[in-house]
Amino acid sequence: MTIDDQGAQRPAGAGEAPEASAIGAFSGEQAPxxxxxxxxxxxxxxxxxxxxxxLVKTFGRVVGLDGASLELYPGEVLAVIGDNGxxxxxxxKCLTGAEVPDxxxxxxxxxxxxxxxxxxxxxxxxxxxxxxxxxxxxxxxxANLFLxxxxxxxxxxxxxxxxxxxKGMRQRARDELRALGISxxxxxxxxxxxxxxxxRQAVAVARAAAFGSRVVVLDEPxxxxxxxxxxxxxxxxxxxxxxxxxxxxxxxNMPHVFDVADRIHVQRLGKRAATITPQTHSMTDAxxxxxxxxxx
Length: 296
What we know:
By secondary structure, the protein is of the alpha/beta class.
């Protein structure tokens, strides 16, 4: 064991990696070999679109990540599960720029990146849907879909007077919802405050799909939703996979995880305990790995 400058303990050698390149920039280095996992060999032979290696993150004397690694492959749904305090949220925040890891490496499409803020990750094509959804109830569906990315009218009206192109945004919002197969939102001019929980989640997921050109991250998307609304969200996740967009799904709901995930990353005590699949392991096996009663 070694003790870092803040007094947190971790295994010797964990997270020892050179510093990343400039903010959100690519250094051009070649990606390292994939970390070993319990995933099928066919998956391991592919090149990950997103990879984290030996990430370390401490908060004073509290160790959030202790050499955590993760691989996400193109066109797959990777579920991240773990008990409370296992480091799931910290891992995702490091991958999406909400937190900066103290040590370790993050690679996107074979190039090393260093996200200092969430906007860096968004600029790189990584979109995140958090539990609070980050939507504005008073705005309509189209306005929420383009929140922070509003389209301006062409010519002097847009460039000088900054007039928003509401007609264009509403048409693109309809196209995006149609592409995802979202039939419950027929009118994009309806204020979000008038929508159900599942419909609001659909708006947040559609926004992520519209701008997440490389990766979409969903943090507990079915929390506090009923059975019918949860099934709608799960269908949206399948639609994203069919469109070739890789998804990271953080969830405590084991039936949902085993329903849509291609692989399952099990987080325990700040690091990866195992990577399993619904075909090779049961829900009982996953819980046993989460609690330390079994290994991957």
